[in-house]
């Protein structure tokens, strides 16, 4: 079809999964990540509940766009029941693939949930005195055709 967005993206946008619909205190997260997207200025909050290093719940809230909503909805489904170390390794392009693609200029939006999730996992480790246990990832390639990494996007904005 001529739609810019795949059916899966539309479905996740219309019926987003795991939105944080209670006050954060009530959810009482074991880890919390709040990040901004330097390219568009949007924000994302991801909170997780963890048991024996397994993510048992993952909720999120964003001021981001439809692509950010769909990506994070998909991501939040994918990481439930996953070990924190495996969840940390998920890349935005894996999520984009599961969504059946995103328009090129929207790829950066898929980075938002991913970044917030990693921040939440890092926060969980910090709270449990295990900071640095997961090796920080090198900058990820977020756009394969242009070979753009998160770091590039950040430095573009800074320059
Ligand atoms: Fe900001 Fe998509 S335009 S997250």
TrEMBL record:
<keyword id="KW-0479">Metal-binding</keyword>
<keyword id="KW-0411">Iron-sulfur</keyword>
<keyword id="KW-0408">Iron</keyword>
<feature type="domain" description="NIF system FeS cluster assembly NifU N-terminal">
    <location>
        <begin position="5"/>
        <end position="129"/>
    </location>
</feature>
<protein>
    <submittedName>
        <fullName>Iron-sulfur cluster assembly scaffold protein</fullName>
    </submittedName>
</protein>
